[in-house]
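Q: What does the assembled structure look like for these inputs?
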Amino acid sequence: MKSKLYGVMAEFAQPEELLQAARSAYAEGYRKMDAYSPFPIEGVAEAIGFKKTRVPMLVLIGGVSGAFLAYGMQYYSAVKDYALNVGGRPLHSWPSFVPITFEMTILCAAFAAVFGMLVMNGLPRPYHPVFNVPEFKLASQTRFFLCIKVTDPKVVEQAKAFLNSLKPIAVHEVEL
Amino acid sequence: MNEDFLRAVHCVHRIALGAGAGGSLACILGGVANQPQFYHSWLVAWLFFTGISCGSLVIVMLQALTGGQWGVAVQRFSEAAMLTLPLMTVFFVPVLIGIHDLFPWSRADALVVHPKWEHKMGYLNLPFFALRGFLFFAIVGALAFRIRHWSVLQDKEGGILPGKRIRILSGGGLVVYVLAMNFISTDWVMSLAPDWYSTVFVVIFLAGQFLTALALMTLLLVVSAGRAPFAELIQAKHFHDLGNLLLTFVIFWIYVSFCQFLIIWSGNLPKEISWYLQRSASGWKLVALFLMIFQFLIPLGLLLFRGIKRKPARLALVSVLILCANIVNVYWLVAPAFHPEGVHFHWLDLATLIAIGGFWTIVFLRFLKRQPLLPLHPEEVLRHA
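A:
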């Protein structure tokens, strides 16, 4: 028995072909798909229906919580927990709290950006079905791939026929 | 320049002419009635518009060195703005005439009141002060007109030579400019309080000037974006770039401003902290708070959003906000020296701004009309890149 499918994948030689294919696939009604290329191609992300990322919101939350955390920690230690008279200044001397607040804002925002990006991309990921296609190793060299995620056998045939109509170099089945 | 644009320019020209004439009349009347106040207001307004001219020169030189489509899009505007420098040289004369009302070190009894200033007098004296000012204007004026000359030559003849020359001159020019600004910011603003000094002040001054010029250029591009030749070339990404630059310099401005404040506040030495005490006494504290909110917090919050940076109309609002806040910024740097007792708003503050702004705009439009609104060769760059 054939193993289950992750989807079908078309292989192209030119970036423009991939862009065109992604657009037609989206127009055809396919939504669950991904494009792979050796270098970034402008417009492909929009073509496969990628609109918005939640990373900016995450960065904002990271930055704001970093700021509150840093200021709160300094306020608590300098005013509440261990009140110490430094040079006759008020205990709550906000100017001296600003640099650390600023640094913590940047630090937490940067962490939120990096780790948020990783988590939202589903990384780290030791296994991905697309690598079951031997030709896929060319995705980091000379070839451009469009993978449509379909599992229903009837739809698989449809998707294959559709991808073939785009005149790719080849259409591969991607096993799970 | 096409018909549609010319009509708009004529309209603005008429308004500027009226503003210049009306403002001057008000200035003369106000000057006769209250001479010191006239010079105080004049210094603020003149510093503000000189800042735009100088900031535009920096934009042009920076653009020549770093490239970027945003700079090509506003190149003719910033060129025309930097060519107003000779006008600002002329407007430097009233500062020299009114120097006794402005700078305490220039008064006849300065040494009697402040004997400790004796060793400063070798630097702070009228002839040397005037020489430094005119020398500065000669340097930046020569830079501006030389760059413009080559920029026009590039349009006429093409080739890579003029562009290369502009780049070489801009590289050296920026270094000379920042060094010269060191002296100029000391003279024109810092020496209002001869006892006070701060080595980072020149950076704050430069950041404010660049921010003002950039905000004005953004505003001009938004206003022109719908008209030929901009209509089909200017895209959301150009505004996005300008918005990002504005954001960067809003942050940079507060960063260096706070640097100076934190160091002086930590040291808490009488000579240094007095500058801030004066600027946070009574009403001035509200002005400082206004700056923190309207030149930092609000622009920062707004410019974080893509939706604001990519929508010209919204970006224009932020630019207007930054421009207005920068008038207050210059006012807050200068005016507390004259009115330590508290905010003292006079109608001459507005009249000098309108007068100088009117004349500045007339010269600006004059140079703007002379050349195509977009450089001919980079036009291709804008379309294809």
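Chain B has a mean pLDDT of 90.
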